[in-house]
Structure formats: C-alpha cells, structure tokens
Recover the amino acids of this structure.
C-alpha cells in the first residue's frame, strides 16, 4: 500500500519520458563540449549528419544498430522475467565462437546461404549455453544472476583469449584471430536495400544480420505477448508469488528465459563476424552487451521501442566517430563520455523525472472533472 | 498452556504487586501524559489506515494497543516514530506539541522503538549494534569505552544481562530482542514502543520479556505495547486501547475489563450479516487433512498437527485471529507452501504436501483456490483483466493454440465471466490495477468458481471489498455449496464465518482448538479465538 499505483498516460510513459531523458543527456553532453572549447551546436550537427547525412553514414549507423537490437532484445526478454542479465557481453562473445566455428568448418564447402542458418543456430546455441549456467544457478541455488553473469563475462573474455591464441590462430600467424573466412562464410551486404532509397552504402558493413535482427524483434514480441511461455515469463517477472500460486514452475521458466536471452545475445556475433570482419577477433563485442541494457531500458523492453533505441545508439557510435574526426579537440574518449551520458540518463536515471511528471499530471487531472479518473466504481 | 499462567485469567491478582504499589506511590493514575495524539488521520491511496485517532498514554504505564492485523496499529506507531507523516492531527510528547518528521526526531524526543522484525546487524557484536549510529567519532576506541560503560550501567539498572561481545546471529531471538531494547535505552528512550514483540518468542522468553517491561515501567519508563494477543494485554498492561478498522473503538483500564469484552471490541459487532441459506446437505468427504504440520521460513511451527474434513455440500469455516496459522494451512493445502508432516486427501486421492507440490496439478484435479491476498497472489495487477482471468488455468487447451495463446477465446471467456459476475467496468482489456477491490475480488472468484471445482478453498473472501459486493460474493459461495462443492472458508471476520459456515473450526496458535455450530455465540467463539477455552480445559 505504501506505493500507490501512479499512472501516466501512455504517450508520456513511452514517448515523453524517453525524450526528456534524451534531451537532458544531450544538454549535459553539450556542456562537456562547451568546456573543451567547441561549439555544442556544431557538434550536434556533425553527429546527426555523420550518422544520417549520407549513405555510408546510414550504413554504419544501421550496422551498429544491428548489434544493439540483438543485445537489447536479450536484456529485454530477461527483464520481462524479472531477471537482470548483465552477461550479454560474454554471451555475445561466446556466440562469436559458435559463428566462427560454423564458418571455419563450412565456408569452403558450401555457399553462404547454407552456412548462414548453421551459423545463426550455432551463435544462438553458444550464447544460450553461456547463459544457461547463471540461469541454472539462479533457479536452483538462488545465486544472484547479476553477480554470476558479470563473472561469466570475465570468464568468457579469458576463454576467448585462450581459444584464439592457442587453438584458433592459424599456424605462423602473429595476430590472435582466426583465418579470414572464404565466401561461404560471408554474409551479403544490404547495399541494394539502401540503393532503393538512392543511397550509396560505400564501405559500410551493413549486412543481412540487420534483417535477422528485425525478425528476432518480431519473434520476441510474439513470444512475450502471444505465447503461453511468454505469459508465464511475464507473470514471473511481475509477481513471483502469483506465479507460484498459478503453478508456474519458476526454475524452469527462469532457465528457459535465460537460454532465450543468451541465444539472442549470442546472435549479435553474426553481424561483426560473419557480416563485417569475416574472422573472429579479440574483443569484437566492444561493449554492445552493456549498451543493450540501456537500449532495453530506453525501449521499455518492447521490441517496438528497442529498434529505435538501438538506432539512436547506432547514431551515437557512428556520429561520434565523425565528431572526433572533424573536431580535433574532441577525442574518441569524449565521444565515449557523451555515449555514457546518454546511457546514464536513459538507462540508469530512467526514472529521475518520473515523480515530477506524476505529480504534474496528478495536479492536471485533479483540476479536471474527477469522473474521468480511471478507477471504476464498485 | 501452563497452570502458572492462569492467574491472569481468573483476575485474582495482577502480576507484579510490587510494581503496582510503586506506581501508586508515584501517583501514576493522576500522572502526566507521555503521549497524546489528537485527531490523527492517515490514508494510503484508497485505504484509510487511521481515522481520527485520539490516544492518551500516561507516563510510567504500560499501555497496550490491541487489534487484528490490518487494524492500523502499526501505521499509528509508524506515525509516532516518524516513519510516516499523519495527514491530519497533532502529536504531543510530554505535554509539548511536536512534529515528528523522521525517526531521529522521535529518538531526540525520547521515543524508542523495538520493531517486529529486528533492526540489527547480524554479524556485529551486541556492543557494536548498540552504538551503531551513536559512534561520536570517526575513530571508535573512545566511543567504544564509553558505550561499554553505559551498556554496563543499563544492564545493571534494568537487569538486562547480555554479553556485550556476543555476535548477534549467535544469540537466541529473545536475547536479540533484549539488544533492541538496550539500543533504545542507550539512546535515552523514555517512551518505548514494542511492535508485536512476542511474535518470534517462545512462551518462556515472552514471560521474561514481560518481567523486563514491568521493571522498566517501575523505573518510570512509559511503554506502548502493540499486539493482537489478548493474553499479553491482560498479563502486563495498565491500560488498553482497542483498534478496529483504523479507529480506536475503546480505551479501558486493564483491571476493569475482561478478555470477553476485549475480544468483542476487537472483532466488532457489525450489523449482523444475513445470508439466506437452506440446510446443508453434506455428502462424502472431499477434502481430508490429517495431522498437518507447517513451519514458516524461520522454523516456527505455524500449523500444529491440524486435522479436518470437508464434505461435498458443506461450508467449513475456520475462525481465528489473523496470524494463528490459517494462512499457512491454506497455502499448504493448495500446494503453495511445503508442509513438514501430514497428509491431505483430495477426493480420496492423496496430495503431495510434504514435497514439491504442484498447484497447477491440484487445479486440474478440481481444487480451486481463492487466495487471501489477491494483490500478491490471486492477481497480477499490471496485467489486463483477461490475462488474470486465466491465471493458473493458462495451460487449459481452450485458451491455447499449440504454444500460442488463443486471445480470441481468452477474451471471449473473460467477457462472459465479467457479465456473469457483474465485473465492472466490463472491459477485459483494462489493467487489473484499475478495478476496485470488490471487482478485483470478483475477477478471482469468477476464475476459481467458474470451472466446476470439487473443492473450493477461499481465504478472506471479502477483505477490502465494498458492502455491495460482499453480499454478492456471499451468495455465490452459498451457491457453490448448494451445487455440491466442498467449501473451506478462512476469514478473520467472525460475522462472515458465522453467516456462511455450516461448521466452524477455531484456530489458535496453529491448532484447531474447537469445533462449533454456527449458532455458537460470539462470546464463546471469541474466547476460543483468544485461546482461553483451551487453557481452562487444560487446567481442569
């Protein structure tokens, strides 16, 4: 009873709050730009132009967004079950191992469209396997998922160094990476897609994984809101005691949710490995697992919100690179600060303005006809 | 219960004669007020937790506040201790008007609180806990020496022996509670609030606590004792205020009242609920509970060797003051809580109650359950109404298309139920949190009653439900009985139990202490609920 149900109109919940958070993040970021002696306005122009101003920029923005859609979906699925999967980073990393193994085995034998489904499956399986252990420990032993998934990020990191240095590195090579895949291990780019809009993708690695990400987003929506499993996941997340009452087997649902979440994170590896680099390298995830948390928070754990949120972060990555190129005072690290600010306001401080807005709308509603109040009479 | 405890029952003498003479010598009966509350009012959303409370607590007395769970006792004390602010009303401490914004203000006014759930750091020593928040310096050694001396003084003065270097988690709960009391005294408390202090204590520990409280009172401290146990009130308080539904309905001098009167005041004589019902026609036993024992997570026995039968076509009501094991009994029968011992037969077939029970399987076998707490168990408030209409039945084929939900069927079925049970507004897409309490309860009832169960287990069917819906719900329960269902009903509303039940079982301290017919008087049931009858029977 101490926390009464504060209700906000849907458009406030899903549009206004994320927008306010974003604007505040940009204002603070603007201050940072001002402090180093550059014009925030010019930086903002560069950011948007760099990300959306030309074909190659858009290609890169969407390429980064693809990563974030996968990891954002991974975090969102776990959120619905009340689980905070911080391990997207490690699950994606291990997913990369699956993609690489599939490509290394098949790239010389079959064309890409045969390797492709195998690689998708391998990415999902490897990512899921990496999420299984924390999921199992949470479900059966009560070990907190946040702690275990963080630890598993570190373990994944060490494991991949070992794999690349000791196992997967071609003989005689100095670099800790696999050999470059043959054509059978390379996804086609989606230059034709952008050229239908009259855009030239240039060197941007925008590839088929983007379509896979969109399909995954649709499937997640279907899973969460249209299947019995999704119903059980949402019940668990909203009220574990109600789930117990309903006879939902909590351990089973937790483990399955983590498998799905890990699988989605693992599939993120398709994009950089099979779609761009065509080989497995160290640290290819570059924080996408963590950005996924911000994307899921900003997108309210709904695929329809996650896709634009992922594109926004794609824009920050791509436009940020552009700024640091054009403005010598703003180093690559500054860009990271700006991205960090957006994550801070959109993710961690997501609810900062909520109490104010609730109070504002409460007084607004109070001055109107009380008959409009949503609570129904008895 | 031990014979030694019976003195208070017969009212022959009050405990601590010495204390009484002391107090009279101090002139306590005409003494000043330690606390005076005037017109305190507090609401949480739609829940009116405290209504216009007026309370006077005399200095140097033990003042009991008794009432059922949810009567508003804890809210009132939280206001006094500064956890909440009252919406209206004044607080006077020692005759001076004050505003208590937070617990620190309360402490500086000399108010100390011993919480129901201890606020101790488990892996700290007694001394460390006592001085926590009163360290004085960043470097501890001087503070420690001082605190140790002060603790020693307090222990001697109030006979509260406890080893200052013992680690909390290694102490029994009785001693942990003593540390809480020491903590309050250490901070200079003159007024001590104890919230349900005996809930976690064994009877021996409770007796010891009472002796400590009497001693504190005799040294001039004022004590406010919150409890729902009549025995404690009679045993040690000087005055008692009874709370019911957020109001103080009476204040009595303990010596001039009786258990019967207090029980009646607590439970309340509401306008008698009248439900028209014919004779019951009991058939075969559908639910048979035998020797069921349940412990809670702390290991305390909540259900103690309970056996009962419910037959098809009858309503068996379980009466009792809240917290006497009824909730745990329901949860064990319905597979939500694991029992330690015993068997439960559903329609002649055993249920797994001591292992991992499966509520879903029980539902399939015809056991429907309306839980006591619809907000945390019976419903997911953030779901749409139609999603709650299938909670627990979501595995049913009519709601599924393979792994997919059949939204058409779900919504149609929900709309049908909404009409049948007059759920308003009849919008199955509306969020459940936006329905009123009565309509939320109808959503649960429609779901559980609507699938032709063999046994219907109902907890608190009308808690937080408006009067109009109460009648509707009662009629439905009677209809279920007349349709030949076995109904097990738990309610803390004695009127409700008497109006609906064909047989009444009374639970006290985890045991079924008596069975009565519905024409048993309120006083008779009240005594059973207070555990009095049992004690007298044992004494004979």
């Amino acid at each position: 009873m101490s926390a009464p149900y504060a209700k906000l109109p849907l458009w406030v919940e899903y549009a206004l709050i994320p927008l306010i958070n974003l604007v505040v993040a940009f204002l603070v970021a603007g201050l940072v730009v001002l402090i180093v002696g550059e014009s925030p306005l010019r930086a903002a122009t560069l950011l948007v132009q760099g990300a959306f101003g030309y074909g190659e920029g858009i290609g890169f923005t969407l390429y980064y967004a693809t990563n974030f859609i996968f990891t954002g979906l991974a975090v969102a699925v776990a959120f619905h079950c009340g689980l905070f999967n911080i391990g997207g980073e490690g699950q994606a990393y291990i997913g990369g191992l699956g993609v690489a193994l599939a490509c290394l085995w098949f790239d010389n034998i079959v064309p890409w469209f045969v390797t492709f489904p195998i690689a998708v499956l391998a990415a999902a399986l490897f990512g899921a396997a990496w999420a299984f252990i924390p999921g199992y420990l949470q479900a059966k032993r009560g070990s907190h998922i946040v702690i275990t998934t963080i630890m598993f990020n570190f373990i994944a990191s060490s494991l991949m160094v070992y794999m690349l240095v000791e196992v997967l590195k071609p003989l005689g090579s100095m670099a800790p990476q696999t050999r470059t895949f043959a054509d059978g291990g390379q996804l086609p780019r989606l230059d034709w897609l952008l050229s239908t809009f009259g855009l030239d993708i240039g060197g941007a690695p925008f590839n088929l994984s983007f379509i896979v990400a969109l399909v995954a987003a649709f499937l997640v929506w279907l899973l969460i809101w249209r299947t019995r499993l999704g119903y059980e996941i949402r019940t668990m997340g909203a009220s574990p005691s109600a789930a117990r009452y309903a006879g939902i087997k909590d351990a089973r649902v937790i483990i399955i949710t983590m498998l799905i979440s890990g699988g989605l994170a693992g599939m993120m590896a398709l994009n950089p490995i099979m779609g761009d680099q065509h080989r497995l390298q160290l640290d290819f995830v570059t924080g996408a697992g963590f950005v996924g948390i911000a994307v899921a928070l900003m997108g309210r754990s709904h695929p329809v919100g996650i896709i634009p949120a992922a594109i926004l972060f794609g824009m920050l990555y791509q436009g940020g690179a552009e700024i640091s190129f054009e403005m010598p005072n703003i180093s690559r690290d500054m860009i990271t600060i700006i991205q960090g600010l957006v994550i801070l306001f959109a993710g961690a401080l997501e609810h900062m303005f909520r109490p104010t807005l609730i109070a504002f709308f409460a007084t607004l509603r109070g001055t109107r006809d009380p008959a409009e109040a949503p609570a129904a009479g008895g | 219960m031990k014979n030694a405890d019976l003195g208070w029952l017969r009212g022959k003498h009050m405990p601590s004669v010495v204390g009484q003479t002391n107090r009279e010598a101090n002139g306590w009966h005409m003494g000043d007020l330690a606390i005076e509350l005037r017109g305190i009012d507090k609401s949480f959303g739609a829940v009116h937790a405290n209504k216009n409370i007026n309370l006077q607590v005399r200095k140097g007395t033990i003042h009991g506040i008794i009432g059922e769970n949810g009567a508003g006792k804890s809210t009132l004390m939280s206001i006094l201790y500064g956890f909440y602010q009252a919406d209206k009303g004044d607080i006077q401490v020692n005759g001076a008007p004050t505003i208590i914004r937070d617990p620190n203000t309360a402490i500086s006014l000399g108010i100390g609180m011993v919480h129901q759930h201890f606020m101790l750091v488990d892996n700290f020593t007694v001394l460390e806990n006592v001085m926590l928040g009163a360290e004085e310096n960043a470097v501890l050694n001087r503070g420690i020496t001082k605190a140790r001396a002060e603790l020693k003084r307090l222990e001697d003065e109030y006979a509260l022996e406890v080893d200052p270097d013992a680690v909390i988690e290694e102490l029994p709960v009785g001693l942990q509670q003593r540390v809480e009391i020491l903590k309050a005294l250490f901070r200079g408390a003159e007024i001590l609030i104890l919230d349900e202090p005996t809930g976690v204590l064994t009877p021996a520990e409770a007796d010891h606590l009472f002796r400590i409280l009497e001693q504190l009172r005799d040294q001039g401290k004022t004590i406010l004792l919150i409890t729902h146990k009549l025995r404690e009130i009679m045993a040690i308080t000087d005055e008692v205020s009874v709370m019911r539904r957020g109001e103080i309905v009476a204040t009595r001098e303990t010596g001039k009242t009786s258990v019967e009167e207090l029980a009646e005041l607590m439970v309340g004589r509401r306008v008698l609920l009248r439900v028209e019902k014919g004779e019951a026609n009991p058939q075969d036993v559908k639910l048979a509970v035998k020797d069921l024992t349940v412990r809670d997570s702390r290991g305390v026995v909540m259900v103690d060797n309970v056996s009962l039968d419910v037959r098809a076509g009858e309503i068996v009501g379980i009466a009792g003051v809240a917290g006497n094991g009824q909730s745990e009994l329901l949860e064990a029968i319905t597979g939500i809580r694991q029992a330690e011992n015993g068997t439960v037969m559903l329609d002649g077939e055993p249920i797994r109650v001591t292992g991992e029970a499966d509520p879903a399987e029980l539902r399939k076998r015809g056991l429907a359950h309306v839980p006591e707490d619809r907000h945390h168990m019976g419903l997911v408030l953030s779901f749409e109404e139609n999603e709650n209409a299938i909670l627990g039945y979501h595995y049913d084929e009519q709601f599924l298309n393979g792994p997919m939900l059949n939204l058409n069927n779900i919504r149609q079925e929900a709309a049908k139920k909404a009409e049948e049970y007059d759920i308003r507004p009849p919008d199955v897409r509306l969020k459940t949190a936006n329905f009123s309490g009565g309509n939320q309860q109808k959503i649960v009832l429609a779901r559980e009653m609507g699938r032709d169960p063999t046994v219907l287990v109902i907890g608190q069917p009308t808690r937080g439900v408006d009067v109009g819906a109460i009648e509707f719900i009662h009629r439905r329960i009677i209809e279920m009985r007349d349709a030949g269902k076995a109904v097990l009903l738990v309610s803390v509303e004695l009127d409700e139990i008497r109006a609906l039940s064909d047989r009444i079982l009374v639970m006290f301290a985890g045991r079924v202490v008596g069975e009565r017919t519905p024409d048993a008087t309120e006083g008779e049931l009240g005594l059973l609920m207070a555990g009095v009858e049992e004690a007298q029977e044992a004494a004979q």
Summary: The mean pLDDT of chain A is 88. Chain A touches chain B through 29 residues (CB under 8 Å).
